[in-house]
User: Fold this.
Amino acid sequence: MFAAVIAVAGLLGMVAARYPDRPGPEQRRAELQRRVQATVFPRDFARLPDVALRGRDGSFDLRGDTAGRWTLVYLGYTHCPDVCPTTLQAVASAFARLDRLDVAVPRMMFVSVDPRRDTARNTARYAHAFDSRFVGITGAPAALHRLSAALHLDFSVPADPANDRYTVQHTAGLALIDPDARLRAFFTAPVQPATLATDLRKILETLGSTRT
Amino acid sequence: MTRGLFALLLAALSVPALAGIEVTDARTGTPLPGTDVMAGYLTARNTGDRTVAITGASSAAFRDVELHRSMNNDGISTMKPVPRLVVPPGRAAILAPGGYHLMMFTPAPRPSRGDTLDLVLHTDQGDVPVSMQVVDRAQLIPADD
Assistant:
């Protein structure tokens, strides 16, 4: 027993000697945090729940369809005239910058939290209009609430609107989830294309390359 | 002749007297698929010597136009109608993405890039005509570098 403990300790010592200055995950995160404007989280959040949503081609399985890729998530609604188009356009411009640098972009997921007015199909078309790579999804209110809670995002839709012109309140920033479906970063609004592009590049370089 | 000249002079004087508001950079993005709301942006400078309040807008190109403001309250985006936007002399009201904007409902016909839309800005001192350009959406957000 003691021999085993000593052997393991010896092995760890050898590894430590071989990589004397190799920073741990928290050191890497803290160092990255100093270089980006986004908030970078430790790998502490639980994986996203397996929420059933709806996409252009029918059901969208949050875990299965986001696994293996970095994914940006933005909550909004298509009847939003100002903030949603401005944010989605900022992401599209950031992606265009990354394309020019030949840096792989994450998946961009626009989630309509207003299924009363938005179908999966029109949400997908709307997202697509900004960048053909953007994915648009929606779902039942309960599924959308589970998703937003897991991402520490928030939204509120009037329960009984007088007409079809109601306003939806929603988190204005963007969440970034890693290929393992864990929340890893948050970009505060207003999202600026150059800042978003620079931050995404640093975060993806430091925390792991995009696996497609 | 004198009376005619006088009338002409009055007419000339009455044009700048119309609220003393000079509108520039009036623009909107091409409409997005599946939506019937658009946001209009502009700069309204008060070139007069009296405070002017913008009270709304209208256009034959839309069913309704309202003055709205997007706000970010602790990270939550929300939007509210604005009944009056006060512009002191020498200052400008800037309607821009993420802030004040004209919320324009149900365009008819659906505009395309390059079109010019006629609107009227209502103020407490008269109406101001606005020619709004329909531009590519990428041109709506300012370059940040």
